[in-house]
Amino acid sequence: MKKSIRACILFAMVFCACNNTAHQQKQIEKQQLEQTAKTETSEQSDESNAGQTGTIFLEITMQEALDKSKTEKKPIFLYCHSKTCAPCKMMKKRIFPQQECADYINNNYIAISRDMEEGEGIELAQRYNVNIYPTFIVIDSEGNKVGQFIGGEKDVKKFIERIEEAAKGSIQ
Description:
By secondary structure, the chain is α+β, with helices and mostly antiparallel strands. It folds into two domains: 1-49; 62-167, 3-Layer(aba) Sandwich (Glutaredoxin). The protein has helices spanning 2-50, 62-72, 86-95, 99-108, 120-127, 156-167; strands at residues 76-81, 110-115, 135-139, 145-150.
């Protein structure tokens, strides 16, 4: 009797161990498949960025933008936004990706964007007196505000016209 109980216990232990190993193997395979899918998605995203269209906001500091502005003899286009701003999200989704907007800004400005509620954005918000989002500022290579306008725009042509007005010194 004791032998049959021991045999049953031994069998149960071996069966559970095998079953647990099979479960672990399935979990590992599942994780590998998920990682492969993430990698493929990331590679596709990298490939789509290679021929990037849309407005290109450089990820550089304001000082680097000023230096680049002097070198390239282009003013700076500063897009001031916050994470919670609905019009900012609309601009990012509908206006900045449009080729007409991209061609205009990318060819004529050193474009940077800042969340004005964090990092360097806090200091820039104070320097340029920004407290409404989105705000768009044209800045010369010395860091002086040339012009600005406030609020999103649903029409890309009107948005470009507003940038041109700000570049002429208009502050709205």
